[in-house]
Amino acid sequence: MNFTDFQTALLDEIKVISGEELEVFPKKLNKNNGVIKDAMCIRKKGEAMAPLIYLEDYYSQYKNGVPLITLARHMIKLYQEDIPKKAPTSLKSFNDFETVRNKIFCRLVNYEMNSTLLARIPYRRTLDLAITYYYHVDDLVCKDATIVITNEHLIKWKIGEDTLYHIAWENTIRELPCDVERIEDTLRDLMTPEELEEISPSDHSDSDFIPMHIITNSSRCMGAISILYPLSLKKTADHLNSNLYILPSSIHECILIPQHKSYSKQDLEQIVTDINTTQVAPQEVLSNRVYFYNRGKDTISL
C-alpha cells in the first residue's frame, strides 16, 4: 500500500472507531525550507484547536507489519490522553497584541529556501538569511509550540514590521540569552566515554588542536539567531584572541572556529555541507555558506 492509500485507509479506520464523536481530516504542513509534512488532524466537533499528528512514523510502522487498526487506536489514544484538548490560555486572546507581545521572538531561516514562505510573513534580510518571527505557546514541546507570525497577524494587530522587530528582538535577547560552550563540553553530554576518547584533543599536538565552540541560546531551540546578539561573538573572539569563522550547523546553533591558516573557504563550506547532509533534518538546515566575524570591526560577512 503506498502512502496515499495508507493515509486514506487510516482515516477511514479512525472514523469507524470514533464514530460521530471526532472530526478527522488529513493536512499538509508547510515547514521551514519548503519541507512538507503529512499529518492527521483530530478534534471533537466544535473545538477550535485541531491537534496535528505526523504520519511518517505511523507509515513506517505499517510497512513493518503493524496492523492498521492498531495504528488507528493508538492515534485516538494519543489524542485522548496526551494532546491538550483545550486551547492554552495564551492562545485564547491571540488577536490582542498586548496579550501576546511578550511571547514573540526572532529566529533565523534561509532566505532562498523559504522564498514562498517569506511572501506571506514579515521578515528582514541579513547575509543570505532572513530574520522571521514566531509566537511561543506555553507548556508545549518546543518544536511544536510555535506559531509563525504572518502578515495577516500584523493587519489584525495594526502594527508594522518595524514595531514587531523591536519588540521581538528585545524579547529574544532578554528571555533567550546567548550560551557559548566548547564543543567538547557539548559532546560530553551526548557521547559515551569511549566515543569521546576517540576524538580527544590529547590525540593531537597542541599546534594541531584548534578550539571550537557552539553558540546557541538558553533553550537550545532556534538558537542560531544568537550570532546577531550584541557582543555575543566579540566576547568569544576576544577570549580566543582571533577573528572567527561561523559555521551554521542548524537553525538551532552555530559552530565558532578561530581564524586559522589550515582552513580554506572550500574546506569550511564542505564541513557545513556534510553536516547539513548527514546530521541535520531538512527543515532545520540554515545555510551551506560560511560566515566570517571580524572582531576589530565587530561585523559578520559571508
Architecture blueprint of SSEs:
Layout: H1 3-18, E1 22-30, E2 36-44, E3 52-54, H2 56-63, H3 68-81, H4 89-92, H5 97-100, E4 104-110, H6 115-118, E5 124-126, E6 129-136, E7 146-148, H7 151-157, H8 161-175, E8 178-182, H9 183-188, H10 193-198, E9 213-217, H11 232-240, E10 244-247, E11 254-258, H12 265-278, E12 291-294, E13 299-301
Antiparallel strand pairs: 1-2, 2-3, 4-6, 5-6, 6-7, 8-9, 9-11, 10-11, 10-12, 12-13
Helix pairs in contact: 1-3
Provide a descriptive summary of the structure in words.
With 302 residues, this protein is α+β, with helices and mostly antiparallel strands. The protein folds into three domains: 79 residues, no CATH class; 87 residues, no CATH class; 124 residues, no CATH class. It is 35% helix and 23% strand. It has a six-stranded antiparallel beta sheet, sandwiched between helices. A hairpin with a 6-residue loop joins strand 10 and strand 11. Helix 1 crosses helix 3.
Looking at this protein, list some descriptive labels.
302 residues, alpha+beta, six-stranded antiparallel β-sheet, 12 helices, 13 strands, globular
